[in-house]
Design goal:
heterodimer; A: alpha/beta; Aspartate Aminotransferase, domain 1; Aspartate Aminotransferase, domain 2; seven-stranded mixed sheet; three-stranded antiparallel sheet; 14 helices; 12 strands; globular; B: about 160 residues; alpha+beta; 5 helices; about 20% strand
Amino acid sequence: MSMVIEQFMPEKFISPTLKTIPPSGIRKFFDLVSQTKDVISLGIGEPDFVSPWHAREACVYSLEKGYTMYTSNLGLPELRTAIAKYLAERFGLEYDPKDEIIVTVGASEAVDMAFRTVISQGDEVLIPEPCYVSYNPCAILAGGVPISLETNQETGFKVTPEMLEKSITPKTKAVVLSYPNNPTGAILNREELEDLARVIIKHNLLVISDEIYGELTYEGNHLSIASLPGMQERTILISGVSKAFAMTGWRIGYVAAHRDFIAGMVKVHQYTLLCAPVMGQKAALEAFSSCYGEVLNMVEEYDQRRRIITKRLNDMGLDCFEPKGAFYVFPSIQNTGLSSEEFASRLLQESKVAVVPGNAFGSCGEGFIRCSYAASLKQINEAMNRMECFVAKRL
Amino acid sequence: MRTKILKILANDSRISLDQIAIMLGTSLEEVKRIVKELEEEKIILKYTTVINWEKAGIESTKAIIHVKVTPQREVGFDAVAERIYRFPEVQSVTLMSGDDDLSVTIEGKSMKEVAMFVAKKLATLENVQSTKTHFVLKRYKVAGTIFDETEEDRRQMISL
């Protein structure tokens, strides 16, 4: 009797849950950009500034001193203290560095951990779109069901209390807020946040608030939903040094939340990542203590570029919502008759300017493109000149 | 607004006033008016360029001279400073705290020319007690600008 041995197929072993998650929609486009020469890229989602020298130098020094070990799961105590102080001074938030703050491997890990800590099978998570690409997959991986709330240009890409009310079911557990928003640059003012908070409290929901772009706010000071009455305990506040301090590659983020949430997250964190790399933590500590002046300089520069690029886009005939935060503009390209992806790939091929098609950030991003102004003024102006010619042919 | 305009111009003196107006969210007329004011008040003295002369193949010898002087009644250091900064060889004069009083930068064709200028013109001035000449060997960073910047854009072309 011979046994039939089934052929080994890796495909069969891949988790069905993972299979429901589509791969990043812009992979092909990314390859196309990488193969094209002399491209000016406005498609980059990270600062064009190199990390402040103070932070880099502190990291080098820490390596020389032999800081190469694990840290506490929560992160270096002095870094948590610096984060608590920063959150208090900048946003009027009070967190105990002892057990209400955890240092993470970028805000990305924080998003993943937040979902895994609070989501159980079938819990619904409300996610306003267009938004950064990781909320949906992370919610699914945690067993949750992401529910897209589609915002539009007419309402300034802001999620409204009505949208929340309409989508809340008995299974709804959490709402993701990511303002200032990637890709639209939308922010929420106090009144808008208060309106949302009322609905959130009424339905006893949790907020996962990704405020990684908080420091890059160009009208007034960034307001965290956690600072509203009754909201701190039900908000998992996520941020990090990547955007504000131009420290993306260091992978240092943090969560500030009620100690019970942090206690849950530290479990996920200690069994998966153990701790954020100590050299990054050392650099971040230095950033908080001596690089805030550079943050202000960078914000000032982004703000100036923001005005230039918004005006240029509007002048060339693309209807462009005025971004109030982050470093993106999200113009409508509907009047060119092209889809987001067609626009992006033709612009790349004909004019050698890279932008990201809006549908990468959710289906309601169709008809828009994301242009990053984390590029020098010279590059922005040149990219706008090229894009102007491209658009002129199609209007 | 004045400070913001100054900061932009200090970074790029060739930028158009039109661009500045957009960058600061104000009108061209407003920027024109302020720049004119700044020029008239001699806050903006000159629109200049940072040049790596060495790279352009134009050799010159620079030295930083620390000068100790006897301050004079009523005018303090100002009178002797003026006697020094009027020389065309002198690029800059700064009053400093510390052991010496004035820091003077001098440019000449050769080491000999600079040394002779110091010996004949500077050191012999009334009220100058002593001079210490330091020749410049290499300039790394001038006016906030690194000459041989090796940091470039290393980001990936697309990221979300």
